[in-house]
Amino acid sequence: MERWLTLLLLFPVVFFSTVTSAKGCRRPQLNANINVAVDQMFFDPGVELALSCKDGYTPISGPRKIVCTTSGAWTATKFLCKPKLCPYPDAPSNGDLYYEDTVYQSTINYTCQEGYILSGSSTSVCQANGTWSTPVPECIAVTCGLPPIPEFGMIVYNTRVRGNTTDYGITGTYKCLPPYALFGDATAECMTSGTWTKTPECRRVTCSLPENIDRGYMSTNDQRDFDYLETIKYGCTGDYVVEGSLEIVCQQDGTWSEKPSCKAPCKIGIDRGRILYKGKKMWIGDFNPNKVLHKDIVSVWCMNNARKCGYSVSTQCIDGRLVIPECYEEPSGVNYNLYAGSLPSEIQQC
User: Cystine bridges: which residues (predicted)?
Assistant: First the structure.
């Protein structure tokens, strides 16, 4: 009896010890992409938990369950989940796409080349089911209507245009009908916005009768206003030479282009000696009349006393003034008339 009493007294102690020696498990710490079916924080030994992948992820190894052990630890697992892949995207025709990856939650950005407008979404996201959130957009060519034509104006296209639309990048040149002048940019272009550049204006421009030039004459003396781009010609009297354009034009700002001027001829300022003019060598006394025109070139001869030889030096007529080179020494009348062969122009040349 004492033996059974002793066992009965000990049994509760053993039973209590057995219950309290087993440890429970805390909620397992798993990869963020793995799902656990229950939400509780503590689990009894022997409890099994089924593992699964979150949306957008695919299992690649097992086992797919873990068990809470009496030590308070969960059994080991190599269960992993990898992101789902979306198919490699296609670029839109006449466009480009930019992305870093094609896994779940990756993003594509679409753009169009210059001259095209995006139709559709500019972005797409890889979804949990392995498909892209939006279809590939289209890049539609930019078009413009026909450009506005200014009153009294016209446009000349750089390529053939048919119908009532024009493609992006087409250009044209505005022109005004005389006597109208163009104010603004003459070049028109269909822009990426589908509109044309700013249209210029055609305004009437006139110039009053210009004044005559000194020692010159005009091709008209009409006492009237002259239209834009009308011209008048000038000439010079006698031996005066026109310097500048013979023709002036009525300009866009209502003024004439620069008028020419009349430049005077020159007299060769020597009395004795030889000259070279237009390829001819002649004595100054035979040069009659003693006159060369503006910008004509004349050569005289100088003496190199050290080498006892002659050399020619050129000078030019500039509006009535011809400077004789300093090296020129005019011979005496005796040398000129009796000993002409000793002059610098006649002896051996340097």
Answer: 25-68, 112-139, 207-250
Cα angle 162, 168, 172; round to 5: 65
**Number of independent structural domains in the chain:** 5
- Does residue 90 belong to any structural domain of this protein? no
- N-to-C CA span, the chain: 162
Sign of CA dihedral 140, 142, 145, 146: negative
Q: What is the pLDDT of residue 261?
A: 97
pLDDT digits (tens, 9 = 90+) for 175-212: 999 889 999 999 999 999 999 999 999 999 999 999 99
Question: How far apart are alpha carbons 156 and 175 in whole angstroms?
Answer: 8
Domain boundary among 59, 83, 107: 83
How far is C-alpha 292 from the geometric centre of its chain's CA atoms?
Answer: 54
Q: Which amino acid is at 7?
A: L
| Distances 214 to 163, 235, 264, 345 between C-alpha atoms, Å | 58, 10, 11, 39
**Long-range Cβ pairs for the range 322-326 (8 Å, 24+):** 322/266, 322/267, 322/268, 322/269, 322/292, 322/298, 324/268, 324/269, 324/270, 324/300, 325/300
Beta bridge partners of 74: 68
